[in-house]
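Hey, why these numbers?
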Amino acid sequence: MKTRDGLDLFGLAAIWGASFLFMRAGASDFGPVALAFVRVAGAAAVLMPLVFWKGLWPDIRRHWRPIVVAGLASSAIPFLCFSYAALTVPAGVLAIFNATTPLFGSIIASLWLKDRLTPSRALGLAIGFGGVLYLVWSRAHPAAGGASALQLTALLACLVATLGYGLATNFSKRYVPDVPPIALAAGTQLASTAALVLPAWLWWPSAPISGQAWGAVLLLAVLCTGLAYVVFFRLIASAGPPTAMSVTFLIPLFAALWGWLLLNESLTRDMVLGCAIILLGTSLVTGMVKLPSWGTRTVS
């Protein structure tokens, strides 16, 4: 890996790890709908000038229908879900659930795109979702103080969000494979902005929003969504998709670090163990770790 690629990888993990911190900081003041809207609108404002500068607007116009669907699945719905979960779930836990995205992506690819499900990937799915169940149980069982219906709904929202990410990845692979990445990123943010503008107007908070919350959400929009896409696509072009995808493994570490340093969130043993199980499963699913080859056959 080139030095710049390594810096991009760790920088991107630090930025996306901070996104959960910013969501936590802004969720109470904005509420889920307004928070998600400001995030996508700010990202669109950052990315659209790049689209016009590079002459990519015709690509968005030509493929606007699948881009709208990809935008709903990759941004509007997941950002709403994570913004809702951020009201009650620590930043580190949000990031751990975010790491399940490749698991859902693999399942959808197997069922929809007929990608082969190897024994290694099947084992990874079982391990990964076992980690999810453990993490949910660790927060809900009576010995841990139990979990309210609101908290359990928030954890379910995290899984809906990552399911949307997995669906969007496969949908984009099938229906918009030739759209330049920056055009696709900008188009999905623009479509999400259009989808959320009316709900945000209807559910805009009546109480004044603090300057701290505005600062957190603007950083979430500009830094963690708009500019992060540029870095991510540069990393894909320079180091390849597998290296870029490995950022998933680093995000929970940075999210837990930022939450501990800035929000006084605790890092529990159950969080560490649940994260380790999920990341082991994800590493098998993505091929970062492979089982020894003993004449294994493909599972159909």
Notes: The chain has a mean pLDDT of 85. The chain has 13 helices and no strands. The radius of gyration is 19 Å. The CA atoms of residues 127 and 207 lie 44 Å apart.
